[in-house]
Amino acid sequence: MNPLEIGAWILCGCVAIPFLISLLNLASFARLRADDLVPDEQPFVSVLVPARNEEHNIGALLRSLTLQRYDQCEIIVLDDNSEDGTGAIIDEIAGNNDRVTKIVGTPLPDGWVGKNWACHQLSLTAKGEIFLFVDADTTFEPLATDAIVARFFRSKADVVSAVPLQIVRSWAERLVVPMPPFLYFAFLPNFLIGRSRNERFVAANGQVLGFRKEAYERIGGHQRVSGEIVEDIRLAAIAKKEECTIDLASAREFVSCRMYRSSEEVIGGFAKNFYPGLGFRPASLLLTCTLLLLLYFVPILSLAAAFVFQPDIALLLPLGIAVILGLDARAFSDRTFGLHPLLFLLHPASVCAVTFIGLRSMRLYRSGTGGEWKGRHYGSSS
After folding, report:
1. Would you say 43 and 149 are in contact if contact means Cβ atoms under 8 Å apart?
2. pLDDT digit string (tens) for 338-360?
3. Which residues contact 314 (CB under 8 A, 6 or more apart)?
4. Burial class (CB in 10 A: 0-12, 13-18, 19+), 136
5. Around 113, how many Cα atoms within 13 Å sit in the side-chain half-sphere?
6. Which of 31, 67, 197, 303 is spaced 20 to 30 Å from 58 by Cα?
């Protein structure tokens, strides 16, 4: 074999590793189940909703929560100094349903990220044995709380996080929103999240994040991560350090979420989180983007070039296999999380979009501009 063919087979082997992890996760990734049984003595659940400038989302979420079949729960929503109609919508729904309680957030203290401060205030009000933090842009099916509580008992976990069905309508959403679930689906065997004590084998989703009360208090709650922009992963890592068990499951049948509604929101939201999520480390960001391009963009680019300049089966075969394995890994992820069955065909373009957002995120924070979300500014990496 010549050097090009050797390189093509090496590339194929590299792509095969996340493919095999994805295949394993396709067969074994945990999911919320309607047929799981809630124990006869139901634990009291506090469903805790931080809401800031969520007038387009909060009504649908609260109405869905009031329709939950699970009886032993309270719904507490914090209006985090909203500047739109969020507070009025909460007032209307709370006024018509005794299960919903509204609290008004106090001003954001120095050193705190807005969501963490809101969640901390909610935790001080909650009375439940389980604290279930949910984002305002989610919507719950009537059996969702039952399924989440049942998952606590089925997995015997201290922390249960769930990945909702992601609603994607614009092209920017289709390109970027499926990528975060894909990353932990393709590069992290799900069973290691719950069984390994290594803090590096951790994943969580702040859209649906539940804690047993004693575990939440043991790890220090959101006060422990007061200044963290990507607080869900950090909380999960701390939980592992404190010897709590973690479970991550697909909630595609029970919870849906539309994170963003425009390309500007997609870019702004992910740019806010990308660089902080990698610890403000340029090397980590560059390595991540390079790895994604190498595994999922270079093979298809090389295959096209080989067809044009060197249509030799000895070179086309490994490159073709690499392309197929990469697309299959993404297809397995999309299937697990309930996305459109043809969305995986956009995967090479998704990798390029994520790389652009990652580099933009690093530039914003390193220049001191930082990120901005819901009218709040997040400063530089210092």
Report:
1. yes
2. 999 999 999 999 999 999 999 99
3. 1, 5
4. buried
5. 23
6. 31
Bridge partners of 161? 209, 248
Model confidence pLDDT, tens digit, residues 112-128? 999 999 999 999 999 99
Q: How many Cα atoms sit within 13 Å of 297 on the Cβ side?
A: 14
Q: Report percent pLDDT > 90 for the chain.
A: 90
Give pTM, 2 decimals.
Answer: 0.94
Compute the CA torsion angle 281, 205, 245, 66 (nearest 10 deg): 150
Beta strand residue intervals within the chain, DSSP E: 45-51, 73-79, 100-104, 130-134, 138-140, 159-163, 165-166, 208-212, 246-250, 255-257, 371-373, 376-378
Q: CB within 8 A of 370, min separation 6: which ones?
A: 364, 377, 378, 379, 380
Return the pLDDT at 37: 76
Please spell the DSSP secondary structure of 187-250, one letter per residue. HS-HHHHHH---TTS----TTEEEEEHHHHHHHTGGGGGTT-SSHHHHHHHHHHHTT--EEEEE
Q: Which two three-digit tokens encode residue 352?
A: 């390029």
